[in-house]
Specification:
Helix content is about 40%, strand content about 15%. The chain is α+β, with helices and mostly antiparallel strands.
Length: about 140
């Protein structure tokens, strides 16, 4: 099942649902010491569990920049596959591309765009078209 970010009729593909969940799990585990959505509620609660209002995009974009900078300091081995079950590991194990140098570029689409690039593109459209953004499976 492919998951991505929907803005009006525009779909920004991210990848398999487990991979998208891993992205958010990694953020929460490493950057939200008090639990899920305690530091980044717009992304971790509104977007992940519902929708991000277009009017909240500027603040969410700043959160995303901070998250990307912080994850760039962590090696790929620190990926969290599932925050609800920390024993789970990615199906590919440690067999990753040499292009993956840290957790900011670990999460990428099949065409090589990082999730950060994909989310920023979706945010740009949401703000420009004044449409809310949500995660959707196709």
């Amino acid at each position: 099942m492919t998951v991505g970010f929907m803005v009006d009729c525009f779909f920004f593909e991210a990848g398999h649902g487990d991979f998208v969940h891993s992205f958010f799990s990694t953020i929460s585990y490493h950057l939200e010491k008090d639990g899920w959505a305690t530091k980044y509620p717009l992304l971790m609660n509104d977007l992940y569990h519902g929708k991000l209002k277009w009017s909240d995009v500027p603040e969410a974009r700043e959160n995303l920049k901070e998250i990307e900078a912080e994850l760039s300091k962590l090696p790929p081995e620190k990926v969290i596959w599932d925050i609800e079950d920390l024993s789970k590991t990615p199906p590919w194990g440690n067999n990753i591309s040499p292009k993956v140098t840290d957790l900011s570029n670990y999460f990428a689409t099949t065409d090589g765009k990082t999730f950060f690039e994909v989310i920023r593109s979706a945010m740009d459209v949401a703000e420009e078209d004044e449409c809310d953004m949500k995660i959707q499976a196709l």
